[in-house]
């Protein structure tokens, strides 16, 4: 029996020590997941005779004090189900979630875990983080294109016997299905990192096409173990993408954009959806809404379970890196600067913003670089990597796909010195083909450096002088940072004074106001004056102009690194590199070598820079910090879940992206996402569908700097000025040298009637005519619609144009051409839904218009545009057309986006007003007493409330950030406290209720508490400095 082995196991645990503790934490996480997701657990259990038994358990309740579970248990040998009121968690040796199972959720237990985290602390530490990671793990699993599969469980079910979606199993069927689940789990254990998911589903609506079945909507069928039945999900899953015969197809092939909106409320609009598909496709696509059982498969590129387990282990060991702390909103004050690093540059094509970006990436654990179109993001990344190399740092460079990382690798691997290639020690890793290329590249470098003589004197010559100059530059940049910091503090002080000024009736604050307006403001102005301004010229004067000597240093230093491969310590690796008889087996052996963290760390002595995609980063050792820095390019296109894989592996993080351009491509449907968010109470900042890793970090880290690369070098000033005013708060400084006299051209095209929706054959004719007349120009044609793209590509092919390329915006991010033709393809068949999707698609409009160096040609049917616009003020596309028509003279309405880099506060004015009001009230109460005060920081709550007169041990493990005490003789009495809230405080109403109870505790102790939300943390720290300064004077 379950309960009989507790004494034996407790003794056993003592001997297992730390190893067992780590193992148990994994068990606790699975228990947490099973409770929240409503799934059964497979467990291995140890009874008092020391025998191992296997069970499936469905958790009904949990007693955290005694660490026991109340469960329904399925004995796997007998296939019988019994209820157990008490099984000991410490007696469980291993656990595995049974995917595809159903267990009723205990909503009261889930709420209690959220409300009273302290009760469950010995089982579930960091529950807020655990919920976020579980949510992201599930999103990543389901963010794949499904396909029909001959799933063997389908053969056990007679579709005619499905009643109200539920299917009751016979004893024989139940035994067979349990055995099948067991086999599947055993196979899954040995499959490695890739997940092949198979599941049963109940058809809601499918489309029979000539190629095969497109399942548009279904309900998951889960095994209700206790009732021995298959039970359908309450929610419908909608497939906007589906794989038929190995080829992905989108639902937009069968539904137009107007009808696409119907999918958001599928059950209500079912009949309209069926009619729309039939009307558009006729006999080519027959709809089928019979409730039969189907087998579905999904291939998830990476199982994130072990990766995320490593994050939770960091918290267990209290060895959490700054990037991970920032991700969870735990970074509530600015990290201290590290030492000054010399900056090393590949060229002189550099500006002050780029220098600051490199400087911040070196000195701080987190650096966010917003790089609008044409502002030199790649150059910044290259110089950051080279600077890191110069300072003996290791770098993992990653991005969401191959294009940005191939671009950087190509530039680093093709550096030359006096006509000879520099064997720069960078590895490009990835899939099997990339690894084979990597091995060939390594061997090529080994051959190239054989004849290079490396002398220490060559390497060291003038390195000292270079470091001295670089330190001077770093010093000037530090002063620039200090000016920014002091200016920000001055702005905060002014804000406090303005608020106090508005509260003129608060006479008790007169002394405080006088101190701010006089002494404190004077001191700040004096400090700013002393430092002075740093100009671009100042910074450039300190750069090392001797490029030839630096490239000589790179040439010989790189050769020295590569030569290290021939030392004894790399004999095992050389055996792999030299065995090229079977390149596939060689690549497998190389990948296996890199799976061990100690090998990765050893290889960093030769190749300190490694480049790979976010997904392939999991092949580099265990999930743990191995690199000094992770740099991620196009971070605004990287999804939140997978991006954590390279982030885990770096001690520091530099994110480079632009949230005003394209978002990640997400296949997970909205209904499933909503359900998962509800299940785990996940805040908006972590919404998988709505955020990139860049946006999530900016939302969760309110204290680190974001640097805007302001200098734009690509487009003609007239072209980029629209984007600058519309999306970048007019912060861009245009440095391009385009002399085109007519950079903006509007072509009004009478679209007429088109047979195919979202096409304009007349625009295609205009595009072909322009391409014929301008064979010497590089031309890109961008259109928002797939059907229009296909027509244009057909025209390009028929005309044999090699200087013209066509695509949707995703194909052109990071690219540039002499001329861009933007084909809107609006026609009489364009509906309101389609236009609403298009008109304010800032990512599409921003990317499409900013690819053109010299000329932007916009094609549209003016009559149809006016019909669709309908005088609506909020219409970016209409504004763009007017801007092009008037040659850049029309009015542009700014889009206000929360962005520190664009000079917009990340917090609302309501947040500031609420804080100022509370602070003023607290200060007024203090000065009314006319006593002396003192300040303490980081005060444990338990230390303040020793005589507990209200709620028991609620939140007593927490700390107040800042407490003002009133001195009464020898005693100090807390008067008011400020608490900095992390992300978990905005999770849901349950946590807000807990905070309400905290307020009650403070009220019972006659103390005012001011809560500061995460987004206000940076501004609050300046206010804290102002208060410290004041209290230090009046103490």
Biggest beta sheet summary: 9 strands, mixed
Spatial gap, N to C terminus: 67 Å
Provide mean pLDDT, rounded. 84
Quick one: overall form? Answer: globular
Write down the Rg.
32 Å
The total count of helices amounts to 34
Poorly predicted ranges (pLDDT <50, ≥5 residues)?
A: 1-23
Number of DSSP E strands: 36
Content of β-strand: 15-25%
Helix content estimate: 40-55%
Which structural class do the helices and strands define?
A: alpha/beta
Quickly describe the structure.
The chain has 1035 residues and is an alpha/beta fold. It has 34 helices and 36 strands.
Please describe the structure with a list of short key phrases separated by commas or semicolons.
1035 residues, 20% strand, 34 helices, alpha/beta, 9-stranded mixed sheet
Question: Secondary structure elements and their pairing?
Answer:
Blueprint: H1 6-37, E1 41-46, E2 52-63, E3 68-75, E4 80-88, E5 92-97, E6 101-102, H2 107-115, H3 127-142, E7 147-148, E8 167-168, H4 171-189, E9 195-209, E10 213-224, E11 229-232, E12 237-238, E13 241-244, E14 247-250, H5 257-260, H6 266-281, E15 285-288, E16 293-300, H7 305-317, H8 322-327, H9 352-363, E17 366-370, H10 377-390, E18 395-399, H11 402-413, E19 416-417, E20 420-421, E21 426-428, H12 432-449, H13 456-460, H14 463-502, H15 510-531, H16 536-541, H17 547-563, H18 571-578, H19 583-594, H20 597-603, E22 609-613, E23 627-632, H21 640-648, E24 650-657, H22 670-680, H23 693-700, E25 706-708, E26 711-712, H24 717-727, E27 733-734, E28 744-748, H25 761-773, E29 779-782, H26 786-799, E30 804-807, E31 817-823, H27 832-839, H28 842-849, E32 852-860, H29 862-869, H30 876-885, H31 909-929, E33 933-940, H32 941-944, E34 959-968, E35 971-980, H33 989-1004, E36 1008-1012, H34 1017-1034
Parallel strand pairs: 6-10, 17-24, 17-25, 18-22, 18-23, 21-22, 23-24, 26-27, 28-32, 29-30, 29-31, 31-32, 35-36
Antiparallel strand pairs: 1-2, 1-5, 2-3, 3-4, 7-16, 8-11, 9-10, 9-15, 9-16, 10-11, 10-12, 13-14, 19-20, 33-34, 34-35
């Amino acid at each position: 029996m379950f309960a009989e082995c507790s004494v034996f196991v407790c003794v056993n645990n003592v001997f297992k020590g730390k190893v067992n503790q780590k193992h148990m934490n994994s068990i606790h996480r699975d228990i947490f997941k099973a409770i929240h997701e409503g799934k059964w657990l497979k467990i291995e259990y140890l009874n008092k005779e020391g025998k191992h038994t296997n069970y499936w358990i469905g958790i009904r309740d949990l007693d955290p004090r005694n660490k026991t579970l109340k469960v329904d248990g399925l004995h796997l040998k007998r296939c019988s189900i019994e209820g157990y009121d008490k099984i000991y968690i410490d007696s469980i040796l291993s656990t595995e979630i049974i995917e595809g199972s159903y267990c009723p959720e205990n909503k009261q237990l889930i709420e209690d875990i959220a409300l009273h985290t302290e009760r469950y602390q010995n089982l579930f530490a960091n529950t807020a983080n655990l919920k976020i990671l579980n949510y992201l793990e599930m999103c990543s699993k389901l963010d794949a294109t499904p396909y029909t599969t001959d799933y063997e469980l389908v053969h056990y079910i007679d579709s005619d016997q499905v009643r109200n979606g539920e299917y009751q199993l016979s004893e024989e069927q139940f035994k067979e299905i349990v055995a099948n689940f067991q086999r599947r789990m055993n196979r899954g254990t040995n499959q490695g990192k890739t997940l092949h998911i198979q599941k049963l589903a109940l058809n809601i609506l499918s489309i029979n096409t000539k190629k095969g079945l497109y399942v548009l909507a279904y309900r998951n069928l889960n095994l209700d173990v206790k009732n021995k039945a298959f039970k359908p999900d309450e929610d419908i899953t909608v497939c906007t993408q589906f794989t038929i015969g190995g080829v992905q197809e989108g639902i937009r092939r069968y539904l137009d954009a107007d009808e696409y909106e119907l999918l958001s409320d599928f059950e209500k609009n079912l009949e309209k959806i069926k009619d729309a598909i039939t009307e558009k496709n006729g006999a080519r696509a027959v709809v089928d809404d019979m409730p039969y059982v189907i087998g579905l498969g999904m291939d998830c590129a990476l199982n994130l379970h072990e990766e995320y387990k490593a994050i939770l282990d960091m918290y267990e060991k209290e060895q959490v890196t700054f990037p991970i702390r920032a991700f969870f909103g735990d970074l509530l004050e600015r990290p201290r600067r590290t030492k000054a690093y010399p900056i090393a540059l590949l060229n002189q094509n550099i500006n002050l913003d780029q220098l600051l970006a490199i400087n911040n990436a070196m000195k701080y654990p987190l650096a966010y670089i917003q790089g609008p179109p044409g502002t030199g993001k790649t150059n910044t990344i290259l110089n950051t990597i080279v600077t890191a190399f110069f300072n003996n740092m290791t770098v993992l460079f990653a991005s969401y796909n191959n294009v940005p990382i191939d671009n950087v690798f190509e530039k680093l691997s093709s550096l030359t010195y006096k006509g000879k290639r520099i064997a720069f020690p960078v590895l490009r890793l990835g899939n099997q083909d990339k690894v084979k290329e990597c091995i060939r590249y390594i061997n090529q470098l080994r051959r190239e450096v054989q004849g290079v003589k490396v002398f220490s004197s060559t390497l060291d010559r003038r390195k000292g002088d270079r470091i001295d100059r670089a330190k001077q530059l770093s010093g000037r940049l530090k002063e620039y940072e200090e000016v920014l910091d002091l200016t920000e503090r001055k702005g905060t002080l002014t804000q406090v004074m303005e608020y106090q000024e508005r509260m003129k009736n608060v006479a008790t604050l007169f002394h405080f106001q006088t101190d701010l307006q006089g002494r404190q403001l004077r001191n700040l102005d004096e400090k700013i004056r002393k430092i002075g301004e740093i100009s671009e010229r100042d910074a450039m004067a300190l750069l090392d102009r001797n490029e030839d000597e630096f490239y000589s240093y790179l040439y010989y230093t790189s050769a020295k690194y590569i030569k290290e491969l021939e030392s004894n310590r790399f004999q095992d690796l050389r055996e792999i590199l030299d065995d090229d008889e079977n390149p596939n087996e060689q690549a497998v052996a190389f990948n296996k070598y890199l799976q061990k963290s100690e090998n990765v760390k050893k290889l960093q002595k030769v190749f300190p820079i490694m480049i790979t995609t976010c997904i392939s980063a999991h092949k580099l050792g265990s999930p743990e910090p191995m690199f000094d820095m992770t740099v991620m390019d196009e971070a605004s296109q990287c999804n939140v879940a997978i991006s954590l894989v390279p982030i885990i592996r770096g001690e520091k993080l530099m994110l480079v992206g632009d949230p005003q351009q394209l978002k990640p491509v997400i296949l997970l449907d909205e209904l499933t996402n909503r359900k998962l968010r509800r299940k785990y109470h996940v805040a908006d900042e972590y919404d998988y569908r709505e955020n990139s890793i860049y946006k999530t970090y900016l939302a969760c880290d309110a204290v680190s700097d974001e640097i805007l690369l302001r200098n734009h070098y690509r487009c003609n000033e007239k072209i980029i000025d629209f984007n600058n005013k519309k999306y970048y708060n007019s912060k861009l400084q245009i440095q391009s040298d385009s002399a085109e006299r007519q950079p903006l051209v509007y072509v009004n095209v009478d679209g007429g009637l088109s047979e195919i929706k979202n096409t304009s054959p007349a625009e295609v004719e205009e595009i072909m005519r322009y391409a014929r007349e301008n064979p010497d120009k590089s031309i890109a044609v961008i259109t928002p619609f797939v059907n229009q793209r296909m027509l244009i590509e057909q025209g390009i092919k028929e005309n044999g144009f090699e200087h013209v390329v066509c695509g949707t915006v995703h194909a052109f991010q990071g690219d540039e051409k002499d001329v861009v033709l933007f084909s809107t393809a609006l026609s009489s068949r364009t509906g309101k839904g389609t236009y609403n999707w298009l008109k304010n698609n800032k990512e599409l409009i921003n990317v499409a218009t900013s690819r053109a160096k010299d000329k932007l040609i916009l094609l549209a049917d003016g009559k149809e545009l006016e019909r669709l616009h309908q005088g609506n003020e909020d219409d970016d596309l209409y504004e763009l057309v007017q801007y092009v028509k008037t040659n850049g003279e029309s009015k542009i309405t700014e889009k206000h986006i929360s962005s520190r880099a664009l000079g917009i506060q990340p917090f609302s004015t309501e947040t500031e007003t609420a804080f100022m009001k509370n602070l003023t009230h607290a200060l007024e109460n203090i000065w009314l007493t006319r006593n002396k005060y003192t300040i303490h920081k980081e005060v444990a709550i338990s230390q303040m409330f020793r005589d507990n007169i209200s709620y028991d041990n609620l939140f007593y493990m927490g700390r107040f950030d800042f407490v003002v005490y009133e001195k009464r003789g020898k005693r100090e009495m807390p008067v008011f406290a400020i608490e900095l809230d992390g992300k978990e405080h905005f999770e849901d109403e349950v946590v807000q209720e807990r905070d309400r109870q905290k307020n009650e505790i403070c009220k019972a102790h006659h103390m005012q508490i001011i809560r500061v939300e995460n987004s206000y943390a940076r501004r609050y720290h300046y206010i804290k400095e102002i208060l410290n300064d004041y209290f230090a004077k009046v103490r």
